[in-house]
Structure formats: structure tokens, C-alpha cells
Design a protein that fits this description.
Elements (H helix, E strand, L loop, with lengths): L3 H17 L16 H10 L6 H4 L15 H9 L5 E5 L4 E4 L2 E4 L2 E9 L9 E10 L5 E6 L2 H28 L8
Helix pairs in contact: 4-5
């Protein structure tokens, strides 16, 4: 025998499907999309688009996930400080913290990178450099520096990010060119 709760759930689901079937799904502009189906699918996946049940049943919509590998500033930062051990790297929190690094006895350096924007701009990243100097008795003094290392790291990160951005733009442009034009 079927319980009353199961019948109620079945009725609610049937009504929800029936009522949402009349709602139009978001479409696309054919002029802005590649004509080949496999390229359209690839482009939609890269942009985080797709059909989601949340959108149909009145949820707040899907989330557009951006992966760290697609963020030029994040990639350039990791590539620039790859010689240092990482203590924490949190893409969603927008922060990279290195562990203490030393190539000289009794001196260490630690770097913190905070991302304020995904854009490749000089004000999109905040860099802090800390130095730790210890004497022979392991009495250590930690201080923040605004010296040359901070400027050099920022310059290198922005230079690499600009190169990554150009490579991505060139790759995407070539990928969606129409090559099968017939007269």
C-alpha cells in the first residue's frame, strides 16, 4: 500500500515539472558561439554554463566556478614564488602564504599575497614581505619590509600574468575561428 506522504510528494513533483515546463530556458546568440557542437560544448563548460535543475525549480541559480588555473594572476603568483615552500594557498579566500624560507644562516623571509581582484592590474594584488633575523641564541626579530624584494616580486607576477592573459586570449581567438567556410 502507498502511503499518503509518498502520494503528496509525487503530486508536488508532478506539479513542479508541469509548471516549470512552460518557463523558457536561457538561450544563446548564434553569432557569439562557434558553429561546431563540440566547440560550443567546450566553450560553455569553460564559462560555467549549462542546464541546472536549480535554475528550473526556482533556486538562486548556479554558481559560476572559476578554477585557479584559469586565473592568470593566481598562476603567475604561484609560478613566481615556486621556489618557496607554501604554508597556505586558498584560491577562494584569495590568499597565498609562504613558509619561512632561508638561503642564508640566521635570516629568513616569508611572503603573503592577497588578491583584491581577478584583473591583471598593479592594485589587484597586495604583497607583504617579512624578514626574520635570529642571533646565535635563537633570539629572533621579525619585521615587515617594503623594500626591493616586494617591488620585484610584484613586477614579475604582473609580467607573467600579462603573458598568460595574452596566451589565453590568442588561444581562445584561434579556437573559435570559423575554418569551414564554403562558397
Amino acid at each position: 500500500m502507498i502511503s499518503k506522504n509518498k502520494i503528496k510528494i509525487a503530486i508536488v513533483l508532478a506539479l513542479a515539472i508541469t509548471l516549470t515546463a512552460c518557463q523558457s530556458l536561457p538561450g544563446g546568440d548564434a553569432r557569439k558561439n562557434p558553429p561546431q557542437p563540440d566547440l560550443r560544448v567546450k566553450k560553455n563548460l569553460e564559462e560555467g554554463k549549462g542546464f541546472r535543475l536549480d535554475n528550473v525549480i526556482g533556486g538562486k541559480g548556479g554558481t559560476n566556478f572559476e578554477f585557479a588555473s584559469s586565473n592568470e594572476l593566481w598562476r603567475a603568483s604561484l609560478d613566481t614564488i615556486d621556489f618557496m615552500p607554501l604554508l597556505s594557498a586558498n584560491y577562494s579566500g584569495g590568499i597565498i602564504i609562504t613558509d619561512w624560507y632561508s638561503d642564508q644562516p640566521n635570516e629568513s623571509v616569508k611572503i603573503t599575497l592577497r588578491f583584491l581582484s581577478n584583473e591583471v592590474r598593479s592594485d589587484a594584488i597586495n604583497i607583504k614581505v617579512f624578514y626574520k633575523k635570529c642571533d646565535k641564541l635563537m633570539n629572533c626579530v621579525i619585521s615587515e619590509s617594503n623594500g626591493n624584494l616586494k617591488k620585484e616580486i610584484k613586477k614579475e607576477i604582473l609580467k607573467k600574468a600579462a603573458i598568460y592573459k595574452k596566451q589565453t586570449k590568442d588561444k581562445n581567438f584561434k579556437e573559435y575561428e570559423i575554418t569551414d567556410i564554403k562558397d
